[in-house]
Amino acid sequence: VIGDGWPNLTRGRAILLTLALLGLGYLLLQTNTSPVQISTWRGNAAGSAALFVGGSIAGEAQMQGGLGPAPGGNVDVPFGNPLAVSRTVLTQGYGVGSHAPASIWGGLDLAVDGDGDGAADPEGTWDMPVYATHNGIAQVRPNTWPGGNYIAVTNSVYKTAYAHLARFAVIEGQPVARGQIIGYVGSTGQSSGPHLHYEVWENGVNRDPTDFGALEGIGR
Ligand SMILES: [Zn+2]
Predict the structure, then answer these.
(1) Residue 72 Cα, ligand 1 centroid: separation in angstroms?
(2) Do β-strands 205-207 and 175-176 pair in parallel, antiparallel, or remain unpaired?
(3) How far is the CA of 198 from the centre of ligand 1 (A)?
(4) Residue-level pLDDT at 1
(5) 19 CA distance to ligand 1 centroid (A)?
(6) Is it true that the peptide bond before 101 is cis, omega within 30 degrees of 0?
(7) What is the pLDDT of residues 61-75, one digit of tens each?
(8) Ligand 1: distance of its center to the CA of 2 in Å?
(9) Which of 7, 67, 177, 187 has the fewest beta carbons under 10 Å from its own?
(10) Distance between CA 13 and CA 17 in Å, rounded?
(11) What tens digit of pLDDT does each residue of 114-154 get?
């Protein structure tokens, strides 16, 4: 019954050995995949689902709706909420606190109210996708200070910056399109909790992202 190469094994032992090896393989597989399994991505998936409970539109469409269409179809001008979810919460405004002086540090801090209580919470914010608000070329800068994992999207006129990311979805020099996922929200660099720090620059001058639709579609 057992092949010639297994002369000392009874059928029962062979079965047990096979089961043990399968079990070991399973454990190794679990161990190898656990960093991904326990990452906040799974939590985010649940959080995202919660965000769209009661929504009449499919999740993805609603997220696109959060970013909104580019005014005049001009995808080279930044526009919209880079988190692209209606439950985005402004946790620090333009030109105040660590965003002063605005000419240097101007930007908005955005987080997500995942549980619908009206306040941002880490569970709903961690690892949320971050969308480019205009077309450009990605500059990817890991481990900067104070921006942590930082991406800038630049074109001939505009630069947008996305700071404190958990991880990147694009590489240095990659052309990105408006609405493309470029990274995921984290708390890297000078940050007390997961949020996106978002900046808009026009011809090298810092601008208030609110003037570029960053808070539109929020709170619906
Ligand atoms: Zn900030």
Answers:
(1) 29
(2) unpaired
(3) 7
(4) 52
(5) 53
(6) yes
(7) 344 446 888 999 999
(8) 67
(9) 7
(10) 6
(11) 999 989 999 999 999 999 999 999 999 999 999 999 999 99
